[in-house]
Amino acid sequence: MTHRIVIIVTFAVSCALISAAPASAAKPTPWTDNYGEARSPTIPKDVRKFVIAAQACAHFSGEEAFDEERGRFLAKMIRKNCANIEARREKLLTKHKGNAEVEAIIAEIWEPFA
Hints:
2 strands, 114 residues, 5 helices, single chain
């Protein structure tokens, strides 16, 4: 009888511990930028969006419009990705001030614009 109680109590405690584990306990995975480089999973989503937009802005700004259709496409991509890029950068640097990882990735991404 004593063994049965110990087994039941052990089972109940194990179930309680399992159910108490947070659902988000899974390890975050890296994300990939526009150039296929794996980036830290701890970079906030707003900074991720900026990185993607800044990379696209630098890319499309350097492209040649070899015909009218390409010119329209490039203009659209530049409007979409480059709009207020410097103000967006400053806002993120202010928001995440003191976060060395964020400051480093923004500095890296900003190099083509400097």
